[in-house]
Every structure is written in C-alpha cells, then in structure tokens.
Design goal:
Layout (H helix, E strand, L loop, with lengths): L6 E6 L2 E6 L9 H15 L6 E6 L17 H18 L4 E5 L2 E3 L1 H8 L2 E5 L3 E3 L10 H11 L1 H10 L2 E3 H7 L4 E3 L4 H13 L3 H14 L8 H11 L4 H12 L9
Parallel strand pairs: 2-3, 3-4, 4-6, 5-7, 6-9
Antiparallel strand pairs: 1-2, 7-8
C-alpha cells in the first residue's frame, strides 16, 4: 500500500476515506494535494468502493490552500495539482461525501462544496475569503453559480464572507447539519446507510444526476484558469495581497 505523509487513506466496508492530516489546520500544499490525487485515482479504479469520504483530522477540516505556494513560479504548478483534484472528483463514478467540523475555508470550502454531499457539524464556519488577499477562488467561480445561484455566488465570493453551518445549509454549500453532540453518530449512520446500498446503483444514479445538470460545473474551468494565471496573477495587487498575508500585514492596493 502507498505510504502518505499528509493524508490518511483507508478502505473498509465499501467506504474509502481520505483523512486530511497536515496539522494543525490541514492547509493544502502541493505535496498533500498530489497525495489526494493519488488516492482519488485508486478509488476511481476500485469497484469495491461505494462511497468516497473526505475528513479533516485534528482541529478542523481545512483552512485552505498554502498561500506560500500561491506565488511566483509555484502558482501554475499549484493551480494544476489543485484543479486536478476536482477534475478527478468530477470524473469519479462513486458519490463523494465531505464530513466537516470547525472550519472549511478557501480551498477547503471548495473541496467540501464540490463533494456530492457535505455533512456539517453545527459549529462549522465555511467560506471563501480569498478576495481579501487579492485573489479569487477559481473552483468556486466555476461551480458555485450553478450550485447556489449567481446572486449568492457573487455575494459569497466578492465579499469574502464566512458562513455559519445553518447559513451554509441555506446557501446550498452543505447538505445536512448535525448538532455537535450527535455529529459523530449521525454522520456515521449516514455513511453506513450509503454503504449499505448497491454500489452499482449508486454509481448509475450519480451519473443520472450529473446528466440532469445542463452543463458540467467544470466546463468553464480552463477559461477561468487562464484568467487567474494570465490576468489576475499579472497584477500588482494580487501579488501584494498574497505577500501581505504572508507578512501578516494589511495589503496596500495600487489598483494595477
């Protein structure tokens, strides 16, 4: 079995679990996302897996993508490996489920919301604060208008708002919210119910639901990537915002 440094990966009872395991906040760096992609490939090729589950080990689900790898010559590589996760998930025949606690921010929010189902603990904070450091979230830009409606997507992405669990449920970012004291039992029960169903029926049903969407939510991602890398990352303000975040200071916008 492949050894991973940044994730826990196991398969049991028809459920494949990817545990984000890069303490303290499961920040997604290039190495970690490469491991996730490796695990996703294994899941897709394993007909015994009925459901794929993402969890966050430790303090939270994920605080997002490593800002230090968002800059300079690493940016294109980071975007490539990050977006590969979503392309693999989009092509994956099995349903995907995110089990969320504490926080799912930035890239962590995108990962959670892009799963077919997201189960949230009632104390979860979820959102896309990227605009505050001078960039935007490409996956959210591609997927959220169809997921939650254009007005809500504009509001969430342009404001950088962070939502509570109930707000996220109303917005369509999560599927169900469970009380803290019942969260482990209820999420376990939910997953056991899925795993008790026919794997082939789950896969065919997922295919049918995706066909019901007029257009793949990633159909425009190639265009958005070009905007992100060729236009956004060519601006002073995007680089200033990221540098200011790393320097722990307020950015100085120059509108260029």
């Amino acid at each position: 079995m492949t050894e991973y440094r940044n994730i826990r990966f196991d398969t049991a009872g028809g459920v494949a679990t990817i545990g984000l395991n890069r303490p303290p906040l499961n920040v997604l760096n290039i190495e970690m996302m490469g491991e996730i992609n490796s695990a996703l490939e294994k899941i897709s090729q394993n007909p015994a897996v009925k459901v794929a589950v993402f969890r966050g080990e430790g303090k939270c689900f994920s605080a997002g993508v490593d800002v230090g790898e968002h800059t300079g010559e690493l940016a294109a590589r980071m975007i490539d490996v990050f977006h590969r996760m979503f392309r693999l998930m989009d092509a994956m025949p099995q349903p995907t489920v995110a089990v969320l606690h504490k926080s799912a921010l930035g890239g962590g929010c995108e990962l959670a919301a892009f799963c077919d189902i997201a189960l949230a603990k009632d104390d979860v904070k979820i959102g896309q604060p990227e605009i505050q450091v001078g960039v935007f979230p490409p996956i959210a830009a591609a997927a959220f208008p169809a997921l939650m409606g254009a007005k809500k997507a504009f509001d969430l992405i342009l404001s950088g708002a962070v939502l509570g669990a109930r707000e996220a449920l109303e917005a369509g970012l999560v599927s169900r919210v469970f009380a803290s004291e019942a969260f482990e039992a209820e999420s376990k029960k939910y997953l056991e119910n899925l795993a008790g169903l026919s794997g082939i029926v789950l896969r065919i049903t997922k295919k049918a639901i995706k066909a019901g969407k007029a257009r793949s939510s990633l159909a425009t991602l190639g265009e958005i990537e070009k905007i992100y890398l060729n236009e956004l990352m060519a601006t002073h303000d995007a680089n200033e915002g990221l540098k200011a975040f790393l320097d722990k200071r307020k950015p100085v916008w120059e509108e260029r």
